[in-house]
Automatic annotation (TrEMBL):
PANTHER family reported for this sequence: GEO12009P1, THIOREDOXIN 2
Name this polypeptide is given: Thioredoxin
Gene label: trxA
Organism this protein belongs to: Streptomyces lateritius
Electron transport in keyword set: yes
Domain Thioredoxin, residue spans: 1-105
Keyword Lipoprotein applies: no
Family: Belongs to the thioredoxin family.
InterPro entries per the UniProt record, alphabetical: Thioredoxin, Thioredoxin-like_sf, Thioredoxin_CS, Thioredoxin_domain
Keywords, comma-separated and alphabetical: Disulfide bond, Electron transport, Redox-active center, Transport
Amino acid sequence: MSTVELTKENFDQIVSDNDFVLIDFWASWCGPCRQFAPVFEAASQRHEDLVFAKVDTEAQQELAAAFEIRSIPTLMIVRDNVAVFAQPGALPEAALEDVIGQARKLDMDEVRKSIEAAKQP
């Protein structure tokens, strides 16, 4: 599956309609972003059951601000409407595969329980 361009208009629907979304926050002027792009695209070909999406931080400044993106590229993984991973920096292929594998193994019921527990005073 090729990557999807996320905008403030389609972001909520794409994230809500899909169980597992990998989001690459990037900009065209960013060298590390350009280096990471082929790694991200290759992973999208290997993991056709997942949604791979990109947010151009220059064109979508409101989205970048909403997620407090301070450094690009930043990779975020959203599972069942919960951000389970967010890290700035271009990942090498092996590290990206490792992160995807770890995110796949998460027990989302446990994740939600720990989020609720963290909200308790």
